[in-house]
Known about the structure:
Blueprint: E1 4-8, E2 14-20, E3 26-34, E4 39-43, E5 52-60, H1 66-76, E6 78-83, E7 90-94, H2 95-118, E8 125-129, E9 132-139, H3 140-149, H4 156-168, E10 172-174, E11 187-190, H5 195-200, E12 201-206, E13 215-220, H6 231-235, E14 240-246, E15 252-262, E16 265-274, E17 284-287, E18 291-295, E19 303-310, E20 313-320, H7 324-335, H8 343-349, H9 358-366, E21 369-373, E22 378-380, E23 389-394, E24 397-402, E25 408-414, E26 419-420, E27 434-437, E28 441-446, H10 448-457, H11 459-479, H12 488-496, E29 499-503, E30 508-510, E31 518-524, E32 527-533, E33 538-545, E34 550-551, E35 566-569, E36 573-579, H13 580-590, H14 594-597, H15 599-608, H16 619-629, E37 652-653, E38 659-663, E39 666-671, E40 676-677
Parallel strand pairs: 1-7
Antiparallel strand pairs: 1-4, 2-3, 2-5, 5-6, 8-9, 9-11, 10-11, 12-13, 14-15, 14-20, 15-16, 16-17, 18-19, 19-20, 21-28, 22-27, 23-26, 23-28, 24-25, 24-27, 29-36, 30-35, 31-34, 31-36, 32-33, 32-35, 37-40, 38-39
Helix pairs in contact: 2-4, 3-4, 8-9, 15-16
Amino acid sequence: MGGSISVHNDTALIFRSMLLGPRGTIVEGFDITLQPGTAVRVDARKVEPQQDHKVVFRMDQQGETKTTKRERRKSDCSSFEFKTWRNYNILELRVSKLQANAIRVMENLQLSGLVREVLMGVRIEDREAYGVLYRRCFIANELVTYLVLHRIATSKEDAVKMCRRLQDENVFLPMVSNAKFDNEFQFFKVNESHDVVHRLGKLKKAPATWDDMPMLAFAPHLDVSHLAPSPKNYANRQVEGWLEKRSRLGFYKMRFFRIIPDPKDYKHSIITWHSDQVALKPSGSISSKDIQTVLRPNPRKFIIEVKVNQGNEKSKLTIRAPNTEHWFRWFHAIQSYAKTLSPEDVIKHSALAHIMDEKQMRDFSKRLNIVSMKAGTVIATRGESLQQFYIISSGKIGIFLSSKDKKEVQLTTRCRFDFLGEEVCTSGAEPSRSIKALTDCVLLTISEKERLSFMKKHQSVNKAFSAMFHSDLEYCIETASIFKYLNVSQRERLCIGLKYRSFFPKDTVYRVNSPGDAIYIVLNGELVITEYDLESRTDVVTKRLGPNDVIGELCGFLKGAPRTEDVSASKNSLVLMLDYDTLENFFKLTGLPRTVILNNMVLDILNNSKASFFEGLPIPAMRKLAAKHCSIEVFNEGSNIFNEGDTGNKFYTIIIGSVEISVGGEVVNRLGVGARFGEI
């Protein structure tokens, strides 16, 4: 099933429950007993999807004798059966709702799961049949094929059952009245005004096909790919369509291409091509495990070359896309599986793409040398300046600083597409750090002679390099809020841990509810925070972020905390990234509290709490309070913050999650983000 299930007992009774699998045995982790006011989160990966399961539960009074329990056990025991579905979210269940109508609760959850999974496969276009034009519809048997190939349904019959359930719930509406969904050439449309569809996603424009007909696809509001067993497979589920495949004789033939899960190993994929959209058996395929490199042989044509190694056999797949959008989508989807990248592709994925055009990137890539390093190789000792500029093509590099007791402590890890040796581009001071290969690495390096020749030829890039690694960086460090309360030495140390990221217009920085793993600082360009408006069905910009603005500070408190907004680029943007592990290592090296870095965020939290005892405090006093007297505490779901009767000595404001207040074992209030408690 996947994801996890959170069960909260919001009743005054003891909740006991078991989940029985298809063979009648208890599923691991699902023999649950919950006292009133408590909660538990259970890993649902052991629950088999698309299988019949049974839930058995009962409610017990507190303080009952064994005899009384035995008398009530049969009459108060409830059970229901249901078919599981694939889930990548946290499903939240409240015992009071299960107690009132358990079957309806599970049906609603199942419907949401079906809508999220099934609608990802609809390809909506204006279609014509027998001289009649049907607008904004999809074809039934095409969707059935999609569901079977992507392992969402176990068979065609199972896929039809899923879709009929959606038709019964008025999610799917027939274009011909009284038509019943079947594995046939039938036209259906998605009921965009349905509450569940409206809540979970929207129909969004997809890349045009060969005939330039506009197409729509379902886009979920929340990105849950990171929760899937294979995030890459989940992200590529909607990458499908007609492409031209080159034959051995050099002729191109139209084939319908898909990226589907490998039935032998769900973590890998298979790129398949079919004679049409409803064919289950492919005309041919290649495994993502065998893809070596992905190239674009001619920049003016929409051609993709995929070089494949299958054991001792080498082969090549050449395909042609109808337009730039389709080419870009397929190129990057297939390239994500490639074992090696060309130097030009490495540059395009790095932050250098922000300051170079296509011609400059090709010229720069031709000047690069490929260097391999074994794990453990020392690239630079402390105080030693690198003589060349490096881009990491593969592997991991560790940056180490000296601690107070003169020990080498790792500050950060630089990975694929990150840089080393930025000081050679700025004539900066020799940094007090050492560099070592943590794994086997492949680095791209440019010699001093080639670098100077390139910079002389491309003066605009020379200026951009200097700004990126020197002037813009220095100004950002001096003005960004997270650096404000650090001294010069501390700033220099933290800057060594910063990484560059570039984003083009409409690129996503992160999605709401995705796990937080980094703080971002805008170096130049503009990012926007957006919210999806259900009434207008559009993304509304709620805030614009320019140079030196900081977002994602919550990550500095809690690794993996779900993001609270959608953030994307509105312009070509260069961003500095400070990841959680680097920040944690920085705190250990310096002994500084987190609130020194995140002072502004803590200050905003205190101001927004609207507590009466903060009113009238001048800003300097508030900053001092935030920096010296505030701390961050993390509580796991179901754990007690304090018990009734404990001496109160702390004031709390909720940053993330929710808190329940109980008196005498009975829940009397539930507080969310921004609420405060403990004032007395």
